[in-house]
Amino acid sequence: MSSTDRPQAANTIAMLGQAYSLLGFKIVDGVVGAGYPQKPSHSAVFAQIKREGSRLTDLAKGANMTPQSMSELVAELVELGYVERKPDPTDGRAKLIVLTDRGNACIDAAQTTIQGLEDHLTAILGDRGHRQLRTLLTKLLAEG
């Protein structure tokens, strides 16, 4: 069997990407199943927004995307009733993206879903394995 005939083993980067995608879709499925329809791309906002509100530029920077792309996502979430734009009390020229009651409930549903996924990881890896995974990921991300 030549090297071109053997199946290619997934590299670590590909496996991390697959895990990220899989878990992201599971979170969205859990949130949608709890009655909060949205698209997977909306997680870029929900993962960054502070409960007291965030500026669009901060959301975009945290999600590593352009302000224009973030603005489109925010507009969709405004239409769905999850966020609203309000004047920033610290700068009259700026706007804050603020969660509505529905947006806060959506984040609560996501946190419940995430806790279920954390519990599932512990069931698969065991307590020790899950702690080791967190330690390794923390170390990897600290180098970023």
TrEMBL record:
GO terms for molecular function: DNA binding. The keyword Transcription regulation applies. Residues 6-142 form the HTH marR-type domain. The keyword DNA-binding applies. SUPFAM superfamilies: Winged helix' DNA-binding domain. It holds the Pfam family MarR_2. Keywords: DNA-binding, Transcription, Transcription regulation. SMART domains: HTH_MARR (SM00347). PANTHER family: MARR FAMILY REGULATORY PROTEIN, TRANSCRIPTIONAL REGULATOR, MARR FAMILY. This is DNA-binding MarR family transcriptional regulator. It comes from Kribbella orskensis. The lineage of its organism: Bacteria, Bacillati, Actinomycetota, Actinomycetes, Propionibacteriales.
